[in-house]
Amino acid sequence: MIRTEEMLLNVGPQHPSTHGVFRLVVKIDGEIITEATPVIGYLHRGTEKLAENLQYTQIIPYTDRMDYLSAMTNNYVICHAVETMMGIQVPERADFLRVMAMELGRIASHLVAWGTYILDLGATSPFIYAFRDREMIINMLNELSGARLTFNYMRVGGVKWDAPEGWVDGVREFVPYLREQLKGYHNLVSGNEIFLDRVKGVGVYSKEDAINYSLSGPNLRSTGVKWDLRKDEPYSIYDRFDFNVVTRDEGDCLARYHVRLEEIEESLKILEQACEQFPAEGEIMAKVPKIIKAPKGEAFVRIESPRGEIGCYISSDGKKEPYRLKFRRPSFYNLQILPKLLVGENIANLIAILGAVDIVLGEVDG
Amino acid sequence: MLGFTKGLKYTLKQLTKEKVTYNYPDEPLPLPDRFRGIQKFYPEKCIVCNQCMNICPTECINLTGKKHPDPTKKGKIIDTYDINFEICILCDLCTEVCPTEAIVMTNNFELASYSRDMLFKNLEWLDENDENVRQVNKP
């Protein structure tokens, strides 16, 4: 009988499939993983600590750099928290612009998740198609905010810029275009036998596990839990739109893949309705004092980002800087289930499972 | 095999489509007017109110003022104005608070250089950076 010895394998921190600077120390017995330890912190910038010395407006550009694939939702969560504390009513037009920007961001983020996931599994071309369509969204957001990724677009009480001329029409035209492309994506990947062999029944976890590990977003919905803050705790103007919460029951990597692709379709529905209901004119900024001082007290708000629930806790002592700021960063929580999923799996499935969790390291490390 | 051939069909269809890439270094990138690139500074417009320095989240702006040379005029004029592009994140807050639009964004974004010192831009450099200046600076 051949005796095998356990081996320590170091994956990352510089590794294309870890989607950033993420290190994973895995103990393998032959090809089977017996233990996995994630090592994080390589991208830690201390956003929360830095924020204690910054005015609220100054914190917004820092939030862009947490989840850099959907910076709009991060912009929103900090503004929403301060607005909640100060009791500011955001003008309707600003709300529409915010929702449209956030949904475009969600689509862009899911396109990256889709493209890179297939790339991780070894197919190169879908990634290029995903980035081709994402580029159109990036250009639209660039026209709106003046940056391609780090938008710094929202302000406490509204948004910085009004929509440029013809921008809403551009979004309206984009919706049927992407719907058509999505069919192509399904043709390209969803039925591919090699792909299905790699992801079907891989990385399965149950509903109970997902809740116990406080997973959120597509990671939670892939187990059949119907929980989406846009529906269950509507913020901004999400209660005005008709869309579905996408769920799957299998809880494997394929389920997460389908949830993300279908969420793009739901976001397109929201965009379509938002374009139709978009107010012809109106203010984009509420009346806010020049120096923003949140009243003494604390607040916690949470919203649905593409990766899950992003929360923002502010404790204020009445000054222009927060006393303490904390972000509940969904990628960080979603990552916690990884060691449990990896044990007993084949080493080749490591990347398939990690990719399906869809982490952004800027957010994991904060 | 059916799923595999479907995918191949999609790939082959793309061959007839138009190119979507940019011929970037040879041709300039098309950018919207709002694009936030390296700042342009107008020394004659600056009233040394220090607002840009105070709002900067990364503290990359340093400026000093001096008394107006004309004794009949009140106020200060700008003496030195430096932006450290090693830490500037082009967040646009400095142009947002400037009451006289003395500092505005441009569409220029090429900052690569062989030395870190070169990223330290002074008043003269920022004054000469006058191409592709953003037209609309305030919402």
UniProtKB/TrEMBL annotation, chain A:
Keyword annotations from UniProtKB, A to Z: Cell membrane, Coiled coil, Membrane, NAD, Quinone, Translocase, Transport
Membrane topology type: Peripheral membrane protein
InterPro entries: NADH_Q_OxRdtase_suD (IPR001135), NDH1_su_D/H (IPR022885), NiFe-Hase_large (IPR029014)
Location(s) in or outside the cell: Cell membrane
GO CC list: plasma membrane
EC number(s) per entry: 7.1.1.-
Catalytic activity from the UniProt record: a quinone + NADH + 5 H(+)(in) = a quinol + NAD(+) + 4 H(+)(out)
Coiled-coil segments on the chain, per record: 254-281
Enzyme class at the top of the EC tree: translocase
Residues of the NADH-quinone oxidoreductase subunit D domain: 120-291, 292-365
One Pfam family recorded for the sequence: Complex1_49kDa
UniProt key word Translocase: yes
GO molecular function: NAD binding; NADH dehydrogenase (quinone) (non-electrogenic) activity; quinone binding
Function recorded in the entry: NDH-1 shuttles electrons from NADH, via FMN and iron-sulfur (Fe-S) centers, to quinones in the respiratory chain. The immediate electron acceptor for the enzyme in this species is believed to be a menaquinone. Couples the redox reaction to proton translocation (for every two electrons transferred, four hydrogen ions are translocated across the cytoplasmic membrane), and thus conserves the redox energy in a proton gradient.
Family: Belongs to the complex I 49 kDa subunit family.
PANTHER family assigned to the protein according to its UniProt record, in alphabetical order: NADH DEHYDROGENASE [UBIQUINONE] IRON-SULFUR PROTEIN 2, MITOCHONDRIAL (PTHR11993:SF10), NADH-UBIQUINONE OXIDOREDUCTASE 49 KDA SUBUNIT (PTHR11993)
Assembly behavior: NDH-1 is composed of 14 different subunits. Subunits NuoB, C, D, E, F, and G constitute the peripheral sector of the complex.
Name this polypeptide is given: NADH-quinone oxidoreductase subunit D
Organism per entry: Neobacillus niacini
Gene name tied to this protein: nuoD
From TrEMBL, chain B:
Signal peptide, first to last residue: none
Keywords: 4Fe-4S, Iron, Iron-sulfur, Metal-binding, Translocase
GO CC terms: membrane
Requisite cofactors: [4Fe-4S] cluster
4Fe-4S ferredoxin-type domain boundaries: 37-66, 79-108
GO molecular function: 4 iron, 4 sulfur cluster binding; metal ion binding; NADH dehydrogenase activity
PROSITE patterns the record matches: 4FE4S_FER_1 (PS00198), 4FE4S_FER_2 (PS51379)
Record carries keyword Translocase: yes
Gene3D superfamilies for the chain: 3.30.70.3270
Pfam families: Fer4_7
GO biological process, one term: aerobic respiration
Keyword Metal-binding found: yes
InterPro entries to which the protein is assigned, alphabetical: 4Fe4S_Fe-S-bd, 4Fe4S_Fe_S_CS, NADH_quinone_OxRdtase_chainI
NCBIfam families given in the database record: NuoI, PRK05888.2-1
Family: Belongs to the complex I 23 kDa subunit family.
Protein name as it appears in the record: NADH-quinone oxidoreductase subunit I
Organism: Neobacillus niacini
